[in-house]
Amino acid sequence: MHTHITVGRAIKKLREARNYTQQFVAEQLQMSQTSYSNMERGKTEISLRRLEQISSLFQISLYELLACTQPPKHLSDHERTFYQEQIVSLQRELASLRSKV
């Protein structure tokens, strides 16, 4: 399973837990409802900047948002390596963005 699909599912769960509509979240993120829906369904990749906006909207840290996406414990070594590489990549991108602020 690709990371953006897992993240999309986590975002959907957070949205539903707060009883937010897709339209409401899309408006808050200044994007179309269709684009937001595609993001939730894993049809589009989500940038780190967008993840930060989403975590801010849901009033959780980026770490908490990404923690919602933890893969199942029954992963193959290949899948585990893939997720670890994704985490490192996102951490580097976050550090880079923070240094620009």
TrEMBL record:
To which species is this protein native? Flexibacter flexilis DSM 6793
Q: Which GO terms describe its molecular function?
A: DNA binding
Q: Which Gene3D superfamilies match?
A: lambda repressor-like DNA-binding domains (1.10.260.40)
The parts of the chain that form a coiled coil are none
The record's annotation in Pfam families points to: HTH_3
Q: What is this protein called?
A: Helix-turn-helix
Domain of life of the source: Bacteria
Keyword terms, alphabetized: DNA-binding
